[in-house]
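The records we work with from here on pair a chain with its fold. These numbers are not coordinates but entries in a learned vocabulary of local backbone shapes. To see the layout at work, look at the sequence and tokens printed below:
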Amino acid sequence: MLDFILLMHNDSITDPAPDQWDHYFAFLRERDAFEGGSSIGPGGTFRKQGVPGDTSTHLTGYIRVRAADLTAARAYLSGNPVFDCGDTVEICELPRG
């Protein structure tokens, strides 16, 4: 199994209802895929020399999941409250070390 991170963007048409998250996390746990997650608050960018890049204000949260491949990870969009409300969800594989 591989590790993936689902990054929630803030371009949704409507906001998810709180109970949608309970159902979604139960869905992931039933499949033994849930590895954690959190909302993302404001932050800053820093660079030792020169001007740092812009802060990623479009990211609102992340969920870490286990899946066989990107196609299997994409199947976990089913029931994702952010995705269901029309928001963008970005999926990236987390390389192992």
